[in-house]
């Protein structure tokens, strides 16, 4: 069941469609941008901005501003939101659903036999296995068992995730249109296989803005030293949206954000004076040329100044209790590890960051899967489960949507020669598994089903745009109404389709 009738408490708020300016963060009812209005009132924005920065506002925005978020386009959400924020644990490379969440005993029974053509149905294969003479079925060497009150099937590789099974909505019927990594990750993150579109986090920042004016609304962290497919900045970029909506990437080094700290000999007051003068020069430029890029640069300088004090506090894990570090596992204090980044994600969520995305590469197992997959699970299983437990004990899971998954799945047949217990799996866009927890999602459920071979979706398919529409819905956004005019037409994250999976929610 997919209609919004399954959620009677989340009816759309009755309001007329709004027209938005591409250069303003607020509804464009007057025809003037925010800065134009300030200038016409005879009050330079530079002095206003720097006065506020130097005095300080205490971080979290006031109740009136929080209704729409600081800098968000929407005056109010389209729906009552079930989530205030998102933590997306993106497993780059394509984790094997057949060895983690989609239990298929038939594959073990027919291990080494040829994949029936009736199952494949002539579907597209990658160049890596498309020229194979045979496609031998590869069963999973990792036993599955049922967990939680709902009896969710989970592999032995994920013992910690199994302990929080009743918090999870395991989605087994996701599918995509992309068959290779670059287009696949781009599609999941931006709604298009082609580079140039805004990322999901950028769209959310554009619509809702930030809950904390001293921190960016959108933060990205990449696990350190994992190899795998390259992760490029377009995956978290702003595309054609104003550049202030792109993610701020936190690094694992001494300076989480490059060039944020003052150089030697420059103190806070000197930097404030410098930025005040720079803003005045930008305002003069805006008077002659109302360019959104200048507005974006002013906003970024303002944010950078505020982050000089907020980032060091937010990224300092030294005040985390030992019990919390132990919960996240042995890598919790290793900078750049997935575990450390999960703790960091929770800290940022506490401080009002709206969209936090962790990229953990290295799941692309074309060969040696029985040896390589357990290592990836060891890196991620305990921290991901700990994040759910940590959020729940702080009463944050109910309004924090946590997502785990990659860009596509893996094949049920072996790529290359099947030799003993050594094999690999190729890319498989026809079905893959992921999970969600918190943020109004009903735990202890498994959604969708694939055929006995784990090759095709046979019940409740979930397209990438359905997934994106549902994430926006949890945040109170109608995916058809959050649009931006570019090159003569209105664009949106979900392109021209997408259905909300309303029956995932409590």
Polypeptide structure, described:
- The protein has a domain at 69-252 and 335-504: Alkaline Phosphatase, subunit A, CATH 3.40.720.
- 31% of the residues lie in helices and 16% in strands.
- It has 14 helices and 19 strands.
- It is globular, with a radius of gyration of 24 Å.
- Helix 9 (268-288) packs antiparallel against helix 10 (292-315).
- The relative contact order is 0.21.
- The chain has helices at residues 34-40, 45-55, 63-66, 105-109, 117-120, 159-163, 181-190, 200-208, 268-288, 292-315, 322-328, 338-350, 369-393, 464-474, and strands at 70-71, 85-91, 144-147, 152-155, 168-175, 209-210, 218-222, 248-250, 355-360, 400-405, 409-414, 425-428, 432-437, 445-447, 449-450, 457-459, 462-463, 484-486, 489-491.
- The protein is of the alpha/beta class.
- Strands 2, 5, 7, 8, 9, 10, 13, 14 and 17 form a nine-stranded mixed β-sheet that branches. A two-stranded antiparallel sheet has the order 1-6.
């Amino acid at each position: 069941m997919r209609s919004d009738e399954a959620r009677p408490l989340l009816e759309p708020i009755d309001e007329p469609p709004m027209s938005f300016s591409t250069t303003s963060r607020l509804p464009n009812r007057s025809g003037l941008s925010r800065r134009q209005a300030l200038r016409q009132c005879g009050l330079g924005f530079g002095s206003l901005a720097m006065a506020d920065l130097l005095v300080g506002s205490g971080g979290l925005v006031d109740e009136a501003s929080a209704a729409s978020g600081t800098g968000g386009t929407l005056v109010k959400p389209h729906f009552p939101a079930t989530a205030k924020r998102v933590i997306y644990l993106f497993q780059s490379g394509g984790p094997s659903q057949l060895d983690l969440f989609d239990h298929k005993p038939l594959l073990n029974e027919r291990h080494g036999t040829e994949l029936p053509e009736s199952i494949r149905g002539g579907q597209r294969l990658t160049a890596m296995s498309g020229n194979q003479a045979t496609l031998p079925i590869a069963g999973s060497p990792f036993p599955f068992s049922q967990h939680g009150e709902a009896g969710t099937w989970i592999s032995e590789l994920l013992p910690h995730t199994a302990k929080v099974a009743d918090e999870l909505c395991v989605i087994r019927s996701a599918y995509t249109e992309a068959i290779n990594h670059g287009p696949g990750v781009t599609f999941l993150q931006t709604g298009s296989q082609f580079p140039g579109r805004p990322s999901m986090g950028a769209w959310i920042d554009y619509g809702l803005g930030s809950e904390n004016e001293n921190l960016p609304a959108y933060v990205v962290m990449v696990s350190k030293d994992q190899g795998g497919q390259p992760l490029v900045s377009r995956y978290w970029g702003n595309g054609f949206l104003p550049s202030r909506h792109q993610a701020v990437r936190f690094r694992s080094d001494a300076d989480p954000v490059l060039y944020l700290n003052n150089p030697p000999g420059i103190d806070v007051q000197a930097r404030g004076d410098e930025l005040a003068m720079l803003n005045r020069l930008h305002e003069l430029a805006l008077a002659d040329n109302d360019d959104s890029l200048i507005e974006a640069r002013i906003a970024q300088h303002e944010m950078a100044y505020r982050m000089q004090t907020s980032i060091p506090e937010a990224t300092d894990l030294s005040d985390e209790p030992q019990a919390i570090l132990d919960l996240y596992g042995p890598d919790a204090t290793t900078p750049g590890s997935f575990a450390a980044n999960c703790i960091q994600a929770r800290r940022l969520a506490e401080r009002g960051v709206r969209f936090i995305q962790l990229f953990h590469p290295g799941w692309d197992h074309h060969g040696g899967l029985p040896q390589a997959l357990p290592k990836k699970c060891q890196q991620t299983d305990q921290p991901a489960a700990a994040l759910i437990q940590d959020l729940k004990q702080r009463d944050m899971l109910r309004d924090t949507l946590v997502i785990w998954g990659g860009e596509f799945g893996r094949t049920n047949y072996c790529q290359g020669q099947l030799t003993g217990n050594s094999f690999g799996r190729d890319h498989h866009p026809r079905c893959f598994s992921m999970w969600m927890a918190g943020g109004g999602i009903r735990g202890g459920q498994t959604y969708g089903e694939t055929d006995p071979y784990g090759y095709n979706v046979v019940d409740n398919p979930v397209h990438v745009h359905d997934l994106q529409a549902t994430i926006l819905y949890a945040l109170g956004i109608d995916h058809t109404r959050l649009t931006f005019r570019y090159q003569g037409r209105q664009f949106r994250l979900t392109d021209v389709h997408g259905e909300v999976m309303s029956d995932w929610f409590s």
